[in-house]
Automatic annotation (TrEMBL), chain A:
It comes from Marinobacterium nitratireducens. Part of the ABC transporter complex MalEFGK involved in maltose/maltodextrin import. Probably responsible for the translocation of the substrate across the membrane. One of its GO terms (molecular function) is ABC-type maltose transporter activity. This is Maltose/maltodextrin transport system permease protein. The chain crosses the membrane at residues 20-41, 47-65, 74-98, 280-303, 315-336, 371-392, 426-447, 483-503. Signal peptide: none annotated. Belongs to the binding-protein-dependent transport system permease family. MalFG subfamily. Its main location: membrane. It is found in: Cell inner membrane; Cell membrane. The complex is composed of two ATP-binding proteins (MalK), two transmembrane proteins (MalG and MalF) and a solute-binding protein (MalE). GO terms for biological process: maltodextrin transmembrane transport.
TrEMBL record, chain B:
The chain crosses the membrane at residues 20-39, 91-113, 125-144, 156-181, 202-227, 263-281. GO terms for cellular component: plasma membrane. Keywords: Cell inner membrane, Cell membrane, Membrane, Sugar transport, Transmembrane, Transmembrane helix, Transport. It is a multi-pass membrane protein. This is Maltose/maltodextrin transport system permease protein MalG. It comes from the Bacteria. InterPro entries: BP-dep_ABC_trans_perm (IPR050901), MetI-like (IPR000515), MetI-like_sf (IPR035906).
Length: 512, 296
């Protein structure tokens, strides 16, 4: 093998200079493209993204051009991928938590200003009665202005809705369209924008006239806006991220501003958020803890049975017991959703037949939570079983022989030998399992979607929601879309998960 | 042990078998039920575990054919299941190949080369991997929204975005491969380097051919992780034709449009191959999941 490598290496040496030149050119081209992206993002006011691009491009340049960073070249792509898709989103989320970014405050100040300045209204001055002519399938408008009649070029309502008016050339003849025809054409007519020779814009006003459109606002030097209709001044409210009228009324859309700790304070003080938040937090802990306990008990018992040397058919049992773990979770969760259906689900059918019960699995909070724990235990026990089987194998058999000599039963063995020996290596894995279920978004979203809802909550919140699915609903559900608040709650979860993973590492005594 | 077996042992073995069989009956009930339902007529029918009048209506729909009911009406497939499955397989294959390439080279650096900040990088990668991406979805969405303005195939609603986003989850794979590299003797590579090979050649021609088994395992693990990924796909993909199976499957069970039978067939059809692959690989999976967690 090494002679092959050497031959390859020698053949490569002749073309070395060409190769280096080519590499340099390619590197330069990539670097230029990268810096173009940085500048473009910066010009668009996307500071965070510009910074990210700058860090990625320049560190890549250093790692791949400097000889000293040779070893880093191998690790760079993975580390960069982690940085861009895990660490950057994490920091960005923490940042959003301190802003009022939401569906009502989506843009930055400049874009909001531009939006306001593009608004127009129909003024009372400058009214132009019009006549519409049908010229063999195409139309032509004639308007009577103060300085004589104006006309448009022939047009059909095809979406090019901006027409330039010019002085009448007198080519139009015949009768203008009657009022009933104009009523039929009202909709396309109202979409038309006509441009006067001096640049002003006209739009349909009523059924007989076109009238001038003027901008609603004009921009002042200090950034405030004057309402041209009544002269009212709209000032910038930097705290709320809105333009506001003199009486304090906010004019949508708002813009994104930093609001400090307000989102966190809201979670702590606003009763319509604090209540649901605490309820969901407690349920999340119960859910994650309960899942760990139930799956561990079931998994340990099954693993002990499968390790027992007198049992036959272990391989078959093992394969069948692992099946719930092998089916993709998104399928088995949906299967359970169907089976638990209150009206025609098979589980209620069986319960009805055996005990005459038909619980409301999806509308009663307690039953919904029970169902979730049952389903998650089903999903999770095989993993615990596999872990325990691995750990049980490492316990020396002579310990059990000695205990049998002393007349100990199976329960004594479990509590005096097995548990004390496996609990230490098991703990970090249990913490990881807890952390995973603490954030078990897929289960809740696919099974209940968080329902039944918590009454009196001002954000979307359900009795079976975990903190993650609650955060997701605040950010992405139609009635919510409060990204700032969602990011603040997400930051709290980050801290918690970070603590858990540090704890796990300490207990696991990780070796590098 | 055999010396001290008590008389009650035989009954305990029988009881254990009975208990295991009873437990399996309950645990596998949902899976058997869904197979049975996929052969039942209609979407609301109830019945016993073995359908009295099996029908292939749901299977035809899941496979993308129209199905004519006995009364003459023609039912069209409600969702493009095969297209979703294809999307899932496409995304998972490409991203697993990329993950494999990048995490192998990284693992090589972490296992064999010496460079500044190695230990810190390794540990912090593992810590950051514990943060679920679902929490930073707003940021991920904004990131790809921006990227899409410059690069078309990385925008929202593109498979490119989903593939690239999955590259964030490489830490565990790096640990798995690094663990394997650590068990290989490094004298072979050292010999090659003394003979004049570069580090890259030692990696490519000596170490990689020795590591094919672990590479296969990591590829399959990455494949399964991507194919079952739900949160990012649910935010990044919008059109019905772009969805992956994990996001699309739930559309069968909306309250207003409850297609239980059709879902059952689609679920068995798409879940079966994934289940088989998983069963085949699970012994390595557990090793991968616990990598870096326990050492003694």
């Amino acid at each position: 093998m090494s002679s092959y490598a050497l031959r390859n290496f020698a053949a490569g040496k002749g073309t070395l200079n060409v190769k280096i030149g080519f590499k340099l050119a390619a590197g330069l081209a990539l670097a230029l493209a990268g810096f173009y992206l940085v500048v473009a993002l910066y010009a668009q006011q996307q500071l965070a993204f510009a910074l990210l691009a700058l860090v990625v491009v320049s560190s890549a340049g250093y790692v791949y051009l400097s000889r000293r960073a040779y070893a880093h070249r191998y690790a760079y792509p993975a580390v960069a991928g982690m940085g861009v898709f895990v660490i950057f989103p994490l920091l960005y989320t923490v940042g959003i938590g301190f802003t009022n970014y939401s569906a009502s405050n989506l843009l930055d100040l400049e874009r909001v200003q531009a939006y306001h300045l593009s608004q127009t209204y129909q003024s009372d001055s400058g009214r132009f009665p019009f006549r519409l002519y049908d010229e063999g399938g195409r139309y032509r408008l004639l308007l009577d202005g103060p300085d004589g009649t104006l006309e448009t070029a022939p047009f059909d309502f095809d979406g090019s809705d901006r027409l330039v008016l010019e002085p009448d050339t007198g080519v139009t003849s015949g009768e203008p369209l009657a009022m009933r025809d104009i009523i039929k054409l009202r909709k396309p007519l109202s979409g038309l924008r006509l441009q006067l020779p001096d640049g002003d814009e006209l739009s349909l006003s009523g059924l007989r006239e076109f009238a001038a459109r003027l901008p609603v606002y004009s921009l002042q030097d200090d950034g405030s806006l004057i309402d041209n209709r009544n002269g009212e001044r709209l000032t910038i409210d930097q705290d709320a991220g809105f333009y506001q009228r003199a009486d304090g009324e906010h004019v949508p859309p708002g813009f994104v501003v930093g609001i400090g700790w307000d989102n966190y304070l809201k979670v702590v003080t606003d009763p319509s958020i604090r209540g649901p938040f605490l309820e969901i937090f407690v349920w999340t802990l119960v859910f994650a803890g309960g899942t760990v306990v139930f799956t561990l008990m079931l998994g340990l018992v099954l693993a002990s049975l499968l390790q027992w040397e007198l049992m036959r058919g272990k391989a078959l049992y093992r394969t069948l017991l692992i099946l719930p773990y092998a089916v993709p979770a998104f399928i088995s969760i949906l299967v359970f959703k169907g089976l638990f259906n209150q009206n025609f689900g098979e589980i209620n059918l069986v319960l009805q037949g055996l005990f005459g019960l038909s619980p409301d699995w999806f509308s009663d909070p307690a039953m919904a939570r029970t169902m979730i724990l049952v389903v998650n235990t089903w999903l999770g026990y095989p993993y615990m079983m596999l872990l325990c089987m691995g750990l049980l194998q490492s316990i020396p058999q002579d310990l059990y022989e000695a205990s049998a000599m002393d007349g100990a039963g199976p329960l004594d063995n479990l509590f005096k030998i097995t548990l004390p020996l496996i609990i230490k290596p098991l703990t970090p894995l249990l913490i990881a399992c807890f952390a995973f279920n603490f954030n078990n978004f897929v289960l809740i979203t696919l099974l209940t979607g968080g329902s039944p809802d918590i009454i009196g909550a001002s954000t979307p919140a359900g009795t079976t929601d975990l903190l993650v699915s609650y955060t997701y609903r605040i950010a992405f559900q139609d009635s919510g879309q409060n990204f700032g608040l969602a990011a603040a709650i997400a930051t709290m979860i980050f801290l918690l998960v970070g603590g858990l993973s540090l704890l796990k590492m300490r207990l696991g005594k990780m070796e590098v | 042990m055999a010396i001290v077996r008590s008389r009650s042992t035989r009954y305990r073995v029988w009881a254990s078998h009975a208990g295991l069989i009873a437990f399996l009956g309950i645990a596998l009930f949902p899976l058997m039920m869904v197979i049975s339902i996929s052969f039942r007529a209609g979407n609301f029918a109830t019945g016993s575990l073995l359908p009295e009048q099996p029908t292939l209506e749901h299977w035809a729909l899941a496979l993308g054919f129209n199905y004519s009911l006995p009364d003459g009406t023609v039912v069209e497939p409600p969702f493009p299941v095969l297209l979703w499955l294809w999307n899932s397989i496409k995304v998972a294959t490409i991203s697993s190949v990329l993950i494999l390439l990048l995490s192998t080279t990284s693992a090589y650096a972490f296992a064999r080369l010496r460079f500044a900040g190695k230990t810190t990088l390794l540990k912090s990668m593992l810590i950051f991997q514990m943060f679920p991406p679902v929490l930073s979805l707003v940021a991920i969405y904004a990131l790809f929204d921006q990227l899409g303005q410059y690069v078309d195939w990385l925008g929202i609603n593109s498979h490119g975005a989903l593939i690239v986003a999955s590259l964030g989850g490489m830490a565990l794979h790096i640990w798995t491969i690094k663990g394997y590299f650590d068990t290989l003797d490094r004298s072979l590579e050292e010999a090659a380097i003394i003979d004049g090979a570069t580090t890259w050649q030692a990696f490519l021609y000596i170490l990689l051919p020795l590591s094919v088994p672990i590479l296969a395992v990591v590829f399959i693990l990455a494949f399964i992780t991507t194919i079952t990924e739900y949160p990012m796909a649910s935010v990044l993909l919008l059109d019905v034709d772009q969805l992956t199976l994990a996001v699309g499957a739930q559309q069968y069970l909306y309250e207003q449009n409850y297609l239980w039978g059709d879902f059952a067939a689609a679920a068995v059809l798409s879940g079966f191959p994934i289940t088989l692959v998983f069963l085949y690989c699970q012994r390595w999976l557990v090793g991968g999941l616990t990598a870096g967690g326990v050492k003694g």
